[in-house]
Design goal:
Elements: H1 10-27, H2 29-63, H3 68-100, H4 102-105, H5 110-124, H6 131-141, H7 147-152, H8 156-170, H9 174-199, H10 202-216, H11 219-227, H12 231-257, H13 261-278, H14 281-295, H15 300-313, H16 316-332, H17 339-355, H18 362-373, H19 381-413
Helix pairs in contact: 1-2, 1-10, 1-11, 2-8, 2-9, 2-10, 2-14, 2-15, 3-12, 3-15, 3-16, 3-17, 3-19, 5-19, 6-17, 10-13, 12-16, 12-19, 13-14, 13-19, 14-15, 14-19, 15-19, 16-17, 16-18, 16-19, 17-18, 18-19
The chain binds aspartic acid.
Aspartic acid binds at residues 279-281, 315, 318, 356, 358-363, 392, 395-396, 399.
Amino acid sequence: MRRNDHASHLLPAIAVGIICGVIVGGWAPDIGTAVQFLGEAFLRALFLMVVPLVMSSIIVGVSSLGDVRALGTLGGRTVAFFAGTTMIAVIVGLVLVLIVRPGETAIMGKSVIEHERNDVNARLDDRPQTLGALLRTIVLGLIPDNVFAAMAKAEVLPLIVFSLVFGGILTTMGERGRVVLMFVEGVNEAIMAMVHLLMWTAPIGIGALLAGRLGEAGGFSGFWPQVMPLSAYVLTVLFALGLHGLIILPLLLRVVARVNSWRYLRAIAPALLTAFSTSSSSATLPLTIERVIDGGGVSRRVAGFVLPLGATINMNGTALYEAIAAVFIAQTYGVEIGLGHAVVIALTATLAAIGAAGIPEAGLVTMVIVLKAVDLPIEGISLILIVDWLLDRCRTAVNVWGDAVGAAAIDRLEGRTGSA
Ligand code: ASP
């Protein structure tokens, strides 16, 4: 962590924000919902930064690579690291859910299931429902047909592709290319400074978002009855997320990036707590980039490339969650999961996590693919819908942590020493 990293001093203020948010939302739900707009303002401001920051970071990053072949190595390492950690996450989830078997102990009110079913069907209607359709969506989603439309919709993946090519071309254009590049560098610095300013509002924004969501759930008295019938499932997911986020990823950080995990975690914590409060890796991206560079000491070049890509395709928490949720649904329907099924679930959960957008509850929707692959009824999603808002924020924090660990590891592999 850098000496002049004032932002990490924000951590106690964010902790106070969280405590206040939980107390207000839990015991005075009306006040919680009344202050929610402060959280939404924070969320909007974060989203505002995403497009200019992603595009300028990638263009600046690519242009500083020097040789275009370096992009191949960087890209290859990034994708390999992300694929590896995602598979590990899925295996952690699968092993735990097969040992704990939460689906066999869950006491589910049938009324809850009936109540949520229509909601599920409404959400799933226009989504890709087969593996082939998902692959098609992923591939076509890489190529924007209109860059301004992609910017307007904040579609990060096509913007990454555009910016990579644009930045690469600029480096071949001599003096005129350098002029454009200097402009983009200026934009990048200005947006980073804006993100830095925005961080000071994080304690209020995070607290208000939590107060608002708890308020919406009816405070603690409305929240516990939702969670209790599914407590075995919720605890299995939380335990698996904890295992992956607090043991496996820090170990990788230590071994591959040779970084002090605790200090790095502290430096990134404001972004992780923002992920927890917003349930969106994409919205958190500006803070993740700021923290990983300014707090974690990762180079701009690597962070600017790895993190936008990570926010869209690397979702450790989501992959782990999808595997657990699919097996949980199978268990509640009395379907035995053998080795063959487990392998199919592992592969499809990985794909479903890659295909999930970095927005709230996206993982729930792509889970259709996992369920279909093992012939489980997609209505099974209705069993877990009611607690998804809670698990979503936890898995989003692990998603962002996985990206941050990836950035430090790739930075080390690219020959730099992380300074956290
Ligand atoms: N909300 C998650 C994210 O933004 C995606 C998911 O639903 O799992 O990372």
